[in-house]
Fold:
Amino acid sequence: MLNKIGEKFTQLFLRYMPDAFVFAILLTFLAGLGSYFLMGTNPMDIIVAWYHGFFDLLSFAMQMVLIIVTGYSIALSPVIKRGIDKLATYIKTPNQVYFFVVLIGLLLSLVSFGWVVITSVLARALAQRVKGVNYPFLIACVYFSFNSWVFGLSSTIPLLLNTEKNYLIEANVLSHTIDTSFTLGSPLNIAMIFLFLLLAPMLLFLLRPKTSENRELRDLLKTADEAETITIKEEAANLKLPFKAWSDTLNNSHVLQFLLGLMGLVYIIYHFYTKGLDLNLNIMIFVFLITGLFLHKTPMRYVISMKRSSQNISGILYQYPLYAGIMGIMLYSGLGERLGELLASVATIDTYPFFAYMSGGLVNFAIPSAGGEFAVIGPSIINAVQEIGAGLPQEQVTAMVSRASLAVAYGESLSNMLQPFFLLIVLPIMGKGVNLQARDIMGYLVLPFLMFFIAQVCLVLWMPL
Structure:
């Protein structure tokens, strides 16, 4: 019955959900209309705010591009290919593929949300080797597994709260940092981790489609699969001149590549030695890059691997600026702050976690970046919580602020299952060579969203922090 309901939602999304770019255009107009009617902003100011925000995510977009291409480059190395081949000998059926992709993806994303790239590579490789896998549903499994990042080491909001001289402290919204023992290490967050690890693989397994007819990877490929092309090592050899040349010696030098990789490795050790387990996008990109250098051994092989990894990243390049424009409207017109204030104004000491959760989920459609969203609505929500907790012991108020902040983060993350912003990280890898759009995938995520929405609301309301 569950998989039949899932198929119904999939058909609805196929019929009514436009391309991800059109979805972003519609959200742009919606944000503009909201700013006009709720804030009284004149149309020219809305357009100016849209333009000012248009380039605010350029750095983030470039980080996403580098996460994809450096991570995919690692996956194209012979060592990883052999590892995936070995794993495929144990995962032999579609049911096992769905279950273990979700489980492995959840564990990887707990380390860093950029590691959804590794999950994508693994899932595609298994789809190549195991017959009967419904490929659009498998992409949905990968995307859902991305949810666990918000409970893990790269969770933006808890890390922000524990950062010295963060903008909340500078603006006197908070008087001190909030240790991660109140957030990432709290019983609430630990319960969320176990909720997803225990239930998500089983739920996606139960929701699996009954058939994979015309939906397997080999059915959907428009061109020959990359597994059928020559290897990177062979292509590098083919590029050599027919006579001995210094240029070929340099291009295929193991020594040059090793020395550059060694420099990078020294910095990586220095980074974690001096800063502890400080995982952020920049260091993850750097780790991926240096790992790829070691795995591909020569400059020419690495260049070829990066070229192959960069073939399908256009969605990020032209869609992220549009979402940044939406964020600009929400930020510079004051609409995002107003929405945070409206939701916080009706909250009580019993209901504030629910309204914080809903704030995170709703505003995420316009500002699909946890850090950017919290910069807009976080101060309003924290101020409201501190007013509700006036007169209580400071530690209890800190716990309330932590619960509200976690609730925003959880709501923001889960609502990604209803909009395709971060699906653009998965599709460059899993969508390569196939004619699939967001509408082919998002319908499978509606039921998991609804079930985990109920579970998360219950936990943020009643689970002791």
